[in-house]
Structures are given as structure tokens and as C-alpha cells.
Amino acid sequence: MPDAVSGSAAPAATYSATQQVERKDQMNKDTFLKLLVAQMRYQDPANPADTNQMMAQTATFAQVEKLEEMAKFAATSLILQEHATAGAMVGRQVTYTDTTGASVTGVVSSVRLATGRSEAVAVVDGKDVQVGRITAVSLPTPSSGTSSSAAS
Q1: Cβ atoms of 129 and 147 closer than 8 Å
Q2: Which of 2, 23, 71, 72 has the least C-beta neighbours within 10 A?
């Protein structure tokens, strides 16, 4: 698609997402629980911890658990949405930017879904095309059996 300012085609962007990011420097609910147990175990019996503070920490622990559940649900929802979107492209006419920067149009015959290591790939007129390179999706026209480069 030509850039409105310069009239030249914009560079193609390729996006990929991972389902989960794990950082070893982040604390999780297990770390929080271990800290809470250690605090209770080593508290001074003559000067026990404030019950309000303990309740606040327990509530924080419950919030951390719920946030983790929500994050897992959101990741699952995203995967299901990506699968539905990819499946809906089969039989549709798509326009994508090839590796040379040219705009190519063709019909999607199948889609390979994304895995943890790779992006979803649409098979367009026999060629593998990363779904992130697709710029338009439409109903096929009667003469869309072959791919063609769009004129600039």
C-alpha cells in the first residue's frame, strides 16, 4: 500500500507473539507463599505479627493467584482467536507483501497454525506466507485463481 506522504510502499512488518514469558528474576505466588510462611515461622512469640497485616498479605496472595488465572485465560483466549481467524482465511483471497516488497494477491488453500516457535502460515497459491505479512482479506473473485503482483 503506498505511503500517503512519499507515495512509496511502507516496509512490511512481521509480528509474532509468544504464549508465555517467564523471567527468573520475577517473584511468583510460590515465592510469595514461601516468604509468608518464613515470616510466620520466624516471628518473635513475644511480639507476634499484626493480624491486620497478616490478613492484608493473605489477600494479596489471593490477588496474585487470581491474576495468574486471568493471564492464563487471556493467553488461551488469544490462541483460540488466532485459530479461528486463521481458519476463516481458507478459501479467501488475500493480498500480502512478499520478501521483495511487492504486493501479491492469491487464494488461501490452507493454514498451518502457530506453535510456540513459529508464526501461523497461510498457503497462498502454493506458497507459504506468514500470516503477519497479509495486508488484506476478501471474498475471492471469479478470476482469482492465480497470483499477480499489484502495479505500483
Answers
A1: no
A2: 23
Residue ranges of domains in the chain: 29-42+50-86, 90-149
Tell me the per-residue pLDDT of 19-56, one tens digit each, with 9 for 90 and over. Answer: 455 656 566 677 777 877 887 788 877 777 777 877 88
Give the torsion through C-alpha atoms of 89, 91, 93, 96, to 10 deg: 50
Show Cβ contacts of residue 125 under 8 Å, excluding neighbours closer than 6 positions.
Answer: 106, 107, 109, 146, 147
- E strand or H helix at 30: helix 29-41
Residue 9 has pLDDT above 60, yes or no: no
Of 12, 11, 28, which is closest to residue 20 (Cα–Cα)?
Answer: 28
Q: Which residues contact 48 (CB under 8 A, 6 or more apart)?
A: none
- Evaluate whether 130 touches 119 at the Cβ level (below 8 Å): yes
Coil vs helix vs strand at 40:
helix
pLDDT over 70 (residue 10): no
